[in-house]
Amino acid sequence: MNAHQDITAVDRIMDRARAAQAAFEDGATQERYDRAAQAAAWAIMEPGRNRALAELSVKTTGLGNVPDKITKNHRKTLGLMRDIATAKTHGIVSDDPATGITEIARPIGVIGAVVPSTNPAATPANNIINALKCGNAIVLSPSPKGVPACEMLLGFIHAEFDKIGLDHDLVQMVPPPGSKDKTQRMLEQSDLVVVTGSQDNVRRAYTCGTPAIGVGAGNVTVIVDDTADLDAAAQKIAASKTFDNATSCSSENALVVVDAIYDAFVAAMARYGGALIPESGEAQIVERLWPDGKLNRSVIAQDADVMIDALGLTGQVPADTQFLAVETKGIGPDHPLSGEKLSRVVALYRAADFSDAAEIASRILEHQGAGHSIGLHSADENRALHLGETIPTCRVIVNQAHCFATGGAFNNGMPFSLSMGCGSWGGNSIDDNLNWRHFMQTTKIVREITPAEPSVEDIFSDYWADAGK
Fold it and tell me: One of 150, 208, 249, 422 is an active-site residue; which one?
């Protein structure tokens, strides 16, 4: 198929999606939107299908592990369904007599979603559910390695659609094999673009001419201070860092530990499978993890034993090692350990005190991961507030396993999502977790009310008292 035929094929898909969306919206009810979202959710959550998707995802991408993919597919989708269960996305959503404004929920139209190979089922399912809940159609552009899982997911969704009489064209994907030209055409023809994955894709989305929501790069940095419960911190960090072999953008990439409890924390970390690589071993890790300057595919998102072997550490670390903490001082482009590693490897920095730890963390995030999130293990609430007021980040995750907490958890109030907006720090248009509100727009009925016009004195009297007229 030549380039012109590729573009024509994408145009046909977009036309079908637009027609399906118009029919979906025509005569719709909240129940109709809710049933569509439930159909897509059950398509990935039904245990047999969930396992099939997880197994295919790991087989075709080579990233992560099956048990954790199953957990992720289930919990992320269940949490999202909890979040949207009572959300009003059709008809009148607010009516305020005081302002005279009535808001009516309206679909956006056709959503174009670019999704990564790290979560080839959970991320598209999240986008699909949000889109359908708000009355939209959606067209996906998966990464090349994510195509098989995406095709399987769409097959499961369409089977559920058949049960409730919904058009398959509400949920489609760019025809494989993927290409930049096809994805670009999809971006240009959509009404809203949602992009999770490489920063190249995010930049392309923001320049495609279509309203876009992209998310920033992750490089999570976590501070452990002198007031922390060290065993609890080590346990949570280990659980988070090893989950799905660190495929999550919310996995810890750097630990900044204050000097007063550094050795005690290293001992606690060892109890939960964290092996210390002293600074003398940093060069070997860097050489093996970034041969030719690029992340080593035999290490990325692999099980612990595979990673350890690929890094040449077999027999050099304890047999129960689950992740590696590599001592380092360097930050910036010449120090790759200070960036995202997509593996069970975390950089370990020693800080003189909390103030120094905050400064180190800020430098790491300014190098990579600005806007995404920072973690803090501490008993001092004021320190969380300090980070929230001074660090370039949209989220401060306190005393939690970071990759479980950032994208929403049943024990915190963040929306369940696999896409985290990073604000202006990360070059993004949103600073929130991507959620259903981003898939809906409103029409406002505006009525006259009793005038509320202040005098000039009402507005400026305090200013005049300070500065004069």
Answer: 249
